[in-house]
Amino acid sequence: MDQGLYRLNRVHETLEHSPGSWRYAEESDSALIEKWFNSFENDAGLPISPIEQVKKRVAMFLKEQEVFIWEDKGKIVSMMKKSRPTKNGVTVGLVFTPKEERKKGYARTLVTAVSRELLKDFNFCVLYTDLMNPTSNKIYREIGYEMIADSVHLGFDKRE
Question: Under CATH, to which class is 2-152 assigned?
Answer without folding.
Answer: alpha beta
